[in-house]
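Handout, section 3.2

Students often ask what a structure token actually looks like in practice. Rather than define it abstractly, here is a full record for FAD-binding protein. The first block is the sequence as you would receive it.
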Amino acid sequence: MRPLTLRFLSAPAHAHTKPAVSANSGFCYVLADRAHQIYEKTTHDAVYVTASTGYLAYRLTGNRIDTAASYIGTWPIDMDKWDWTDEDMMFDFLNLPRTSLFKLVKPGGILGNVTEEAAAATGLPKGLPVIATANDKAVEALGAGLKTGPDLLLSLGTYTTPMLQGNENHPFGTTRYYWTNFADVPDEYLYESNGVYRGMWTVSWFAKQFQGIGNATHESTLDVLTREAATVLPGSDGLLTILDWQPAADRPFRKGAFIGLDERHNRGHMFRSILEGLAFNLLDYSTAMLKKLDRKVDRLVVTGGGVQNDIFMQLIADIFNLPAQRNVITDAAGLGAAINAAVGIGEYRMYDEAIAAMVKPADSFAPQANAVAQYAKVYEKYKNLHQLTDPVFKDLQTINGVAERGKVGLNQILKFDPEDMQLTVQAGVPLKQAEDWLNEKGYTTGHLPQSQPLADFGGLVATRSIGQLSTLYGGIEDMVVGLEAVMPDGRIVRIKNVPRRSVVPNIRHVFIGNEGSLAFITEVTVKLVPYLPDTYHYLAYTVDTMREGFHLLRDIVATGYRPSVIRLYDAQDWSQFYPKHAEKPVLIFRTEGPQPLSDATAGAIKSMVEASDQTQPYEPLDEIIDWFKHLTWTQKEVDAEVNQLEKTPLVGFTTEVAANWHEIVNIFEAVTARVKKEIPNLCGIGGHSSHSYVNGTNLYFVYAFIDAEDDPAGEMARYHDPINKIIVEETLKRGGTMSHHHGVGKARAPFIKEEYGSSYWVLKTLLKSFDPKNTMNAGNIIPLEFWDEPD
């Protein structure tokens, strides 16, 4: 009697002694934020929570046992132990009692035997052993014969991705180049790189456009396209394909494209170019993963539908410059489950033995020297394509005034009202796209955070963001006039758009800056002002001391002048921009608005600053004007910084605070002195003020240190957290606030009591009233350990 194996995608389900309610895999992402709503409101009698594999194992065997390798992500799993975590905090966060979870076994373990009831319902033999396997990719890797060693697996499915196997768990967040999953072999791990979301789907889509072309010759469409592609030289005569038919979530603007198309090209060129584009992407992702893991490979094992195409297999070998193997049994996932069963019942003692007996290689494609050389030249061009196409696709999103963000919804500009000077948008509309659209019509929100090209309106409001023109236009809280949000219990609330009202406390501010802890913002209405870029004036000076610089900031703002930009940099901070001109602190100003107002403001500032005997004009002023052009960061700048951090042990961080004028210099001096004294391997600490008010200003500390260890978590504990603690302590003891515009999150939550003092009770009462189960972003603002403390 042959055993039964279970192989399904992991998805949460609720099991009771009654038939359980099985959930779609998408619900995995709901567990973390809404666990109690599913548990209490959807299935009131549920006492067990499991994945679909556990549910089916229970229905077949009557045992509440499942494979550990089905659980990852939001589940409270300890990947080192292959069992549920010992940390109570994770169970509290998910609102899951330990008793609600099934016992776990490793792949190859016996889950039980088919019961008489299950046998009658399914036709399976009573007593048939049911064997644990793993998640879909892990089972596929096992069926392909992947082991810890020099093989790289290329999975050619709808989602195409490279995979490696190893014996170390690399926790989530260690790197962005791959993520660690359970392998389908006990105590081993699968490293899955980034991939192409619609990989082989794009091949099928293209073939569908030419459906029927093989009817006359009794060939399939794919056979005709493959035959035509075989006549095309490597590189497809300069035709390149960008495979973003479905973009990644963090690059929603990207689209698929053929680049270089001319009269030489036909459908054979296009088909080959799609296959080459897939292989180039796999090479790109593999190279990044292998470099991060410090691994080398000497062979490719290829699985999935694409392995039947000889042209594809050969160009993969040529592009990677490695032999590419396909196996006799192409259903690798099914074979992987069979291997689990064979080991589970003792047919083979070891997985290596089972793999050697059951995984049979079919064909191996060796790289061809001429093609390898040609593809190496093409790849050098291909890997930089996104840098050229991203700006174009971003601009295309604003056609017809609609900002499109993938297909996730909440991406519409709902109403442009020039009479009332208001713009209403859904929360997912990117600020930069809305700004570009408004600028063309002569308007602006006045909001210019550094993240403008990447930020959405919902996130800006939820984090109470500030822009770099805030001294004139204010923060987001000064711009929002109305909004819509969804509360933790599911009800929708709307705050109407009015200029001001005196009707009890302004509840709009309950939502602005709630950081996802009170509500999910779905719609925002903001004020508009005229966009007048031709009226800008730029001024810049060096100043002898930071103390004198702060005095000048205070006098300008307290007198009533409102430049859009008013900044003071210490020499250390300014050196990151123009090190040749960083001997003294630097003052920077920009004025704007109606021409007479901008002229008058610039003139007054010039007179006040130059009246000081401690200032000198900054030269050349063109440097300052050029500096203004780099006030915002696109994804390109973010990626460049990440790449730079990975190439050097030098790490930089920031922490920003705010305080009244009489204490701001004291905070700056106390923090810089303590950090230099207490933190080893410090490369420097400086700071700047960038947002000023009648009664005070902010202080944005910038610091860098050298950490040669490849240990991000340890790095935070050794350097960033202690520096942040010093900054917060010195600020709070002088009556300042620990965050001017970066919010609280989890990093500063431990200081929330000291920040609020006696009014902490008001904050906590508010949060617990709206969200008594602590469902929304639990641990944010108020740490989990503070939540149930007596007030």
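Discussion prompt for tutorial groups: DSSP finds 28 helices and 33 strands in the chain. How would you have guessed this from the sequence alone?
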